[in-house]
Design goal:
Number of domains: 3
Strand order of the largest sheet: 2-6-7-10-1-11-12-13-14
Radius of gyration: 30 Å
Largest sheet: 9 strands, mixed
Number of strands: 16
Strand content: 15-25%
Number of helices: 17
């Protein structure tokens, strides 16, 4: 039997606030273990949580960006479960009254767009972090770090609308892109900024009834999402094709062996004994606040891509690459303000700039070459001051020194030779030094033109105007 895959995802995203959701402790990543904790983080008797307003605002941004309906009132609840990284014995989350419901995002695959529904977005606090013996160098021991306790999270729960592992991957990437554009999440997977849980089931193709779902927990990277879903789909297919049935349970993911493994039977809401958080009043969200947040939202990636295509006349592929990250899109547009050609700047950003950023591990803001200087380099090529080949040399020098392109060209004597007489003299030298190649060219081997161009460029150290070199060579050889 042919089976259809059904996938839903729960994405936990750390909000980029400076302090935790219910206390004033710092959320700075990488500090000494247990340096960022307080009685509120640890749930000591008599303490009272105080809600971080910025965390709510960040959640509202995400709700607006994904078309969700924002509740006029939401409420926090206690989710009770016992695990070593949860010192209070419960997590403050939202259950029956979440902040937002009913949104969607659109992904694109093979030129086709697909809408993935979002069931809800709610706020909650993160748990602490356990360091087990294999990571700490100890024997049969686990260490607990309180720093992450109380870091604000939003949980984004999708509808079961994804029908392939690739759709799930694109959905995760799109969420990350939107949150980075909004400035509410760093997207740093290695720092735990996003974590995933997947619900996977199979059903006979054409059926409208869902199969028994299996939840895969604590996936910490896009690769883990991809590999775990691929494995789980294969595992369930093999069971069903063998006449067996799927058990509803929670699975873990072994990143080393690349297999899922049973952790426990599937939990239900009543297992967590949810009840309203008695120490926090309901949150009333004023419509004026929502409108203010909406007015301050940045242009989102899909809209920006469309604008780049229509405003700058660049191909859709270029626009897609340039708008993947907000900082790259900003860098590109800043360069255009100087008056450089949009397509030429696009080529430089997508090629040399992105390559250098990746190699050096820096952001556009930290890059040695400012958008203005890149645009000036592009203009030096377009006005004939330097050739495209020389521009690469100038670019390398700019990366090293952060220098101004025109100054580099002048100091190093790289200005392009456009004197027809001077170029003709070099051409004559090249032709007289290569009589056999001249005869072969005139005998029909016209591909040798590239050889002659190369020889002229060598003699002029790449400074001769390539268009003039080609033109003069054709006339002399014709």
């Amino acid at each position: 039997m042919d089976y259809e895959t059904v996938i839903g995802l729960e994405v936990h995203a750390q909000l980029a606030t400076r302090s935790k959701i219910f206390c004033g402790c710092s959320t700075q990543f990488g500090e000494e273990p247990n340096a960022q904790g307080c009685p509120v983080c640890l749930g000591m008797p008599g303490v009272l949580p105080v809600l971080n307003r910025m965390a709510v605002e960040f959640a509202i941004r995400m709700a607006l960006a994904t078309g969700c309906e924002i509740a006029s009132r939401c409420r926090f609840a206690r989710k009770n479960y016992f695990y070593p990284d949860l010192p209070k014995g419960y997590q403050i989350s939202q259950y029956e009254e979440p902040l937002a419901t009913g949104g969607h995002i659109v992904i694109e695959m093979d030129g086709k767009k697909k809408r993935i529904g979002i069931t809800r977005i709610h706020l909650e606090e993160d748990a602490g972090k356990l360091v087990h013996s294999e990571d700490s160098g100890l024997t049969d021991e686990s260490l607990f770090d309180v720093n992450r306790c109380g870091v604000p999270l939003i949980e984004i729960v999708s509808e079961p609308d994804m029908r392939s592992v690739e759709e799930a991957r694109l959905y995760c990437l799109k969420l990350r892109q939107i949150m980075r554009y909004l400035g509410i999440n760093s997207g740093d997977m290695e720092k735990g900024a996003m974590r995933f849980e997947a619900n996977v089931s199979l059903r006979p193709r054409g059926s409208t009834r869902y199969g028994t779902r299996v939840e895969v927990k604590n996936l910490n990277s896009f690769r883990a999402v991809l590999r775990s879903l691929e494995y789980e789909v294969q595992r369930q297919t093999k069971i069903l094709q063998g006449g067996g049935s799927i058990q509803q349970e929670t699975m873990g993911w072994d990143d080393v062996r690349e297999v899922t493994f049973p952790q426990r039977g599937k939990e239900y809401a009543h297992d967590y004994r949810y009840f309203p958080e008695p120490d926090l009043v309901p949150v009333d969200i004023d419509r004026k606040w929502i409108e203010k947040v909406k007015s301050e939202l940045p242009e989102l990636p899909t809209a920006r891509k469309r604008r780049f295509i229509s405003q700058y006349g660049i191909p859709a592929y270029d626009a897609e690459v340039l708008t993947t990250e907000r900082e790259i899109a900003d860098y590109y547009e800043e360069a255009l303000q100087v008056g450089a050609d949009p397509k030429a700047v696009s080529n430089w950003v997508m090629g040399d700039v992105l390559r250098e950023l990746k190699a050096r591990g820096v952001s556009p803001a930290e890059f040695n070459i400012s958008p203005k200087h890149l645009a000036e380099l592009v203009n030096l090529v377009s006005d004939g001051t330097i050739s495209g080949k020389i521009a690469k040399t100038v670019f390398e020098e700019m990366v090293k020194t952060g220098g101004h392109p025109r100054e580099i060209v002048e100091v190093k004597g790289l200005i392009q030779i456009t004197d027809t007489g001077a170029i003709e003299q070099v051409v004559e030298e090249v032709l007289s030094e290569n009589p056999e190649e001249v005869e072969r060219y005139r005998g029909g081997k016209t591909k040798l033109l590239g050889f002659f161009v190369g020889e002229v460029m060598k003699k002029t150290k790449g400074k001769a105007n390539p268009r003039l070199v080609n033109e003069i060579l054709r006339n002399k050889l014709g």
